[in-house]
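name: query_chain
kind: protein
chains: 1
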Amino acid sequence: MSLFTVFFAFSKSKFKQCMLNMIKNSLEATASGGKLRVTSFCKSGYVQIKIMDTGIGMSPEQLKRLGEPYYSTKGGNGTGLGMMVVYS
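structure:
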């Protein structure tokens, strides 16, 4: 394992909200006993963060609409604003 230091600028509050929204969605999509994995790495000069879960996934149609205001796959339990914030 190699260790490295990366410096980058971002809005702390937007980054925090983005991560909270993504992790919350992952936890809600994962059945009891499922797994959530968050990894980060540096590739081609960029920091990449991956959030993976063992949820059921999304259809191609759902993925196309991801980030649209008020679009939710959670029925009456979602506002459809969390991913909109992530995409903004």
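note: The chain has three helices and two strands.
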